[in-house]
Amino acid sequence: MSSAQRVPAVGETVADFSCLDQSGADVALARLVADGPLVLVFYRGFW
Amino acid sequence: MAEYRDLQPRFAAAGARVAFLSVDPPWRSARVHRDLALTFPLLCDVDKHIVTAWGLLNEREAGGIAKPAAFIVRPNRTIGFASVDEVTRRIGADDVLAALAAAPKAAAEQPQRRAVRARLNDFVQSARGLLGRRGRR
User: Fold this and answer.
1) Interface residue A22 vs chain B (CB under 8 A)
2) What mean pLDDT, rounded, does chain B reach?
3) pTM for the model
4) Is residue B41 part of a domain?
5) Which site in B33, B45, B98, B120 is 20 to 30 Å from A40, CA atoms measured?
6) Which has the closest alpha carbon to B84: A4, A38, A18, A8?
């Protein structure tokens, strides 16, 4: 478990994930990278 | 976020898609998406399973939020670029564009100055937390 809770390093392969987007649609990482590289930006959010 | 929105044509030209991810619920992200007229999706990791698995859960703030970070994920789901900022600062979209253009090799190291600034931001955030102020991104 702890090995999975590290920030993935360059060259590492990450597991697929899915969650909802802002419109409530299901989004999977595998689909986002289907056509090319994905720039994935984690942000703090608004609260 | 607006920076990535404005540079969207250049990311598209580089053949890349952009997605942002936070632990915010869809209704809140929908408002941000609309207000900023974004063209890329805002992923909503409401149960925090993604930020946890990626080692990016900042448990010290707002009940647990994502640490600012940027990655390039290649089509085979390998990481082509990674930049993590401990608390508030994030790498600029320009730097990510440059990384997209560059050959995929070692991760860009954060310059020393940026690390110092991150620690300073960390201190300021902690101080704000102690004062009970609610922050925004």
Assistant:
1) yes
2) 82
3) 0.73
4) yes
5) B120
6) A8
Q: CA B94 to CA B88: how far, in whole Å?
A: 18
pLDDT at A47: 67
> Is B135 domain-assigned?
no
Q: Do the chains contact at B136 and A11, CB–CB below 8 Å?
A: no
CA distance B36 to B33: 6
Q: Taking the mean position of all CA atoms in its chain, how far away is CA B127?
A: 22
Q: Which of A17, A33, A39 sits opposite B50 (nearest CB)?
A: A17
Q: Do A44 and B65 touch (CB under 8 A)?
A: yes
How many domains would you assign to chain B?
Answer: 1
Q: Is the CB of B118 inside 8 Å of chain A's CB atoms?
A: no
Q: Tell me, yes or no, if B72 comes closer than 8 A to chain A by beta carbon.
A: yes
For residue B136, tell me if it sits in a domain.
no
Residue B75 belongs to a domain with what CATH number? 3.40.30.10
B137 domain residue, yes or no: no
Domain locations in chain A as residue ranges: 2-32
